[in-house]
Amino acid sequence: MAKHVFLTGPPGIGKTTLIQKTLEVLKSSVVPIDGFYTEEVREGGRRIGFDVVTLSGRRGVLSRIGSSPSVARHECRVGQYVVDIASFEQLVLPLLRQADLDSSGVKKVCVIDEIGKMELFSQSFIQAVRQILSGSETVILGTIPVPKGKPLGLVEEIRNRKEVKVFSITRENRDSMLQDVVTAVKNCLK
Question: How far, in Å, are 20, 29, 30, 32, 34 from residue 24 at the CA level?
Fold first, then answer.
């Protein structure tokens, strides 16, 4: 039986929107929910980076468009974006550790949107996610990218875990998946 639920699909397909709709439905079931999602940051109609936004409304920088690659300092980059690991970890790690620590016997949901290239520059993030995946009190409702290019270790590990239910989101099915995702999460909470 599944203990965690992940959505996968190409960028912009609606994974985050589906997670937000799922949370709206779950809020009425008095299940403790915490976590974060990743949001585009635009300036003048142009994407300049990504922020991490917690479900409680706190916001921090995940990445911004960087200038030309700097030889003077080591930067973590994904394409044109420079990843701000310190900002990401400062916001997300306490949240993940709290989700894992609270062992009151009450199951809860932790939203992790997303586990992608930028987030995987943080070894502490990888460890925290693995810890939650192995625990029994917290259900992860998360997103992972579709396989493309070099496999991402943790993403493939999640995709291949027998206790993880992965839904592939497409343009054709995204509007009809809400009930399936909600049901899968509720089953994980039993």
Answer: 6, 10, 11, 13, 13
Q: Kindly report, residue by residue over 134-176, the tens digit of the pLDDT.
A: 987 899 999 999 988 888 999 999 999 999 999 999 999 999 9
pLDDT of residue 161: 95
Distance (Å, whole) CA 109 – CA 172: 27
- Pairing of the two strands 108-113 and 33-43: parallel
**What per-residue confidence (pLDDT) applies to 174?**
92
CB 155 within 8 A of CB 126: no
Report the predicted TM-score, pTM, of the whole model to 2 decimal places: 0.92
Q: What is the 3-state secondary structure (H, E, C) of the chain?
A: CCCEEEEECCCCCCHHHHHHHHHHHHHCCCCCEEEEEEEEEEECCEEEEEEEEECCCCEEEEEEECCCCCCCCCCCEECCEEECHHHHHHHHHHHHHHHHHCCCCCCEEEEEECCCCCHHHCHHHHHHHHHHHHCCCEEEEEEECCCCCCCCHHHHHHHHCCCEEEEECCCCCHHHCHHHHHHHHHHHHC
Q: How far apart are CA 75 and CA 162, in angstroms?
A: 35
Mean pLDDT (the chain, rounded)? 91
Q: Which amino acid is at 164?
A: V
What pLDDT is stored for residue 106 in this prediction?
A: 79
The residues that bridge with 139 in the sheet, in sequence order, are 109
